[in-house]
Write a structure and sequence with these properties.
By secondary structure, this protein is α+β, with helices and mostly antiparallel strands. It contains ten helices and ten strands.
Length: 255
């Protein structure tokens, strides 16, 4: 048995013991899923972790799945044993090898399983609505994708996961996943990236349109003007150009 398969078997055995310790199973599964999408060499903060997550983290530290400088450290480093577990790399067991997910063009997702682990994984990027003995129904929504993105899971990873675990019925399609779904997931990701925040210095309260245009043109000539609005007579310049623009404006006011 290869190493990823051994790790999965160990984690599944660990999850069977979680209820006996009075810990929340779904919360532990969600944390494991989040951990599997982390990056090697990057540290992560434990601030905001629940007691269940902290306890699971300490268990994994003792098992060698994550590294912490000390037991009370507020940072941890994932090892290569837990990274990309959700992708099922090298996994030969039946835990994730069979396709069990169907997604439709209306973003509805059907998970044909009774495994709490599989349902918890899918619920990380979808809203689960109904649970039946061997089926869970949910929706992939803008908010569910945003939650996943905020936890560090990229849309490429979500699409890869859906494609990898697609039901045999879906594998008969080309492409496997509906293009309307994959395109929309990408668009939701782009919504978070279209706003770029930058520091700037605001100039306003100009006495005349002429004063506004003079300062705006000077900042533009220097290449430090970030934006301007003629109707409201405001100019925003970069912090690097603020000193020059301020000196220029003082000279003009004296004249």
């Amino acid at each position: 048995m290869d190493t990823p398969s051994q790790v999965w078997r160990f984690i599944l055995a660990y999850l069977h013991t979680v209820p006996k310790w009075g810990m929340d199973l779904i919360e532990c599964i969600s944390f494991i899923f989040q951990l599997s999408f982390s990056q090697i060499g990057k540290h992560y903060s434990t601030i905001g972790f629940s007691s269940n997550q902290l306890r699971t983290l300490q268990h994994f530290r003792e098992y060698g799945l994550i590294y912490m400088r000390s037991k009370k450290s507020s940072r941890y480093y994932p090892t290569n044993l837990v990274v990309n577990l959700s992708a099922g790399a090298g996994l030969n067991t039946s835990a994730f090898s069979e396709g069990y997910i169907i997604v439709e063009t209306n973003y509805r997702i059907m998970v044909y399983t009774d495994s709490p682990l599989k349902i918890a994984v899918v619920s990380y990027f979808s809203d689960m609505l109904y649970r039946f003995p061997n089926l869970a129904l949910g929706m992939i929504t803008r908010e569910s994708i945003r939650r996943a993105l905020m936890k560090g899971i990229s849309t490429d990873e979500i699409i890869k996961f859906l494609r990898m675990h697609a039901h045999p019925q879906m594998r008969e399609n080309n492409p496997v996943l509906p293009s309307t779904l994959t395109d929309q997931i990408k668009l939701w990701e782009m919504e978070r990236e279209r706003c770029v925040f930058a520091d700037g210095v605001l100039y306003n309260n100009f006495l005349s349109q002429k004063d506004f245009e003079m300062l705006r043109n000077y900042a533009s000539d220097l290449g430090v003007a970030m934006c301007s609005n003629a109707a409201n007579k405001v100019v925003v310049v970069s912090p690097e150009g603020h000193d020059q623009v301020r000196a220029f404006w003082k000279r003009q006011k004296k004249e």
